Amino acid sequence: MDAGIAFGRVLRRLRENAGLTQEQLGFEAELRRTYVSILELGQQQPSLTTILKISNALGCSPGKLLDLVSEEINYPCVKGSSRK
User: Fold this and answer.
1) What is the DSSP letter of 2?
2) Considering the entire predicted model, what is its pTM?
3) Where are the domains of the chain?
4) So what's the pLDDT on residue 54?
5) How far apart are CA 18 and CA 45, in angstroms?
6) Residue 81 has pLDDT above 50, yes or no
7) Is the backbone of residue 74 left (phi > 0), alpha (psi -120 to 50) or beta?
8) CA atoms within 13 A of residue 40's CA, in its CB half-sphere
9) 4 Cβ partners below 8 Å, 6+ apart?
10) Distances (CA, A) of 39 to 11, 52, 65, 78
11) Are the C-beta atoms of residues 3 and 46 closer than 8 Å to each other?
12) Residue 72: in which H helix or E strand, if any?
């Protein structure tokens, strides 16, 4: 799975679980709503700065956000681990 698509799926899931609209998340993260939509659709990949803004707005650590993306892609977290 493409990393951008995986990030978008995780972002949408976390945003919806937080009860936020794209507009609300954009406001909290100082991003445009249209950019949040583009990220959720996997059309672009976020910069490190954007990941930090989004994780802060969602109340999770950047590491947790990227761990969830890694799980979505199905990357092993530990060298030598088998894929799910």
Assistant:
1) -
2) 0.86
3) 3-73
4) 98
5) 21
6) no
7) left
8) 18
9) 39, 42, 43, 44, 45
10) 8, 14, 14, 27
11) no
12) helix 62-73
Cα first-last separation, the chain: 13
Q: What is the DSSP letter of 56?
A: H
CA distances for 23 relative to 3, 16, 27, 35, 66, angstroms: 23, 12, 6, 10, 22
Q: pLDDT tens-digit profile of 34-75?
A: 999 999 999 999 999 999 999 999 999 999 999 999 999 986
User: DSSP letters along 20-36, please?
Assistant: --HHHHHHHHT--HHHH
Q: Please, what's the largest Cα pairwise distance for the chain?
A: 41
The DSSP string of 42-54 is TSS---HHHHHHH
> Going by CATH, does the domain composed of 3-73 fall within 1.10.260.40?
yes
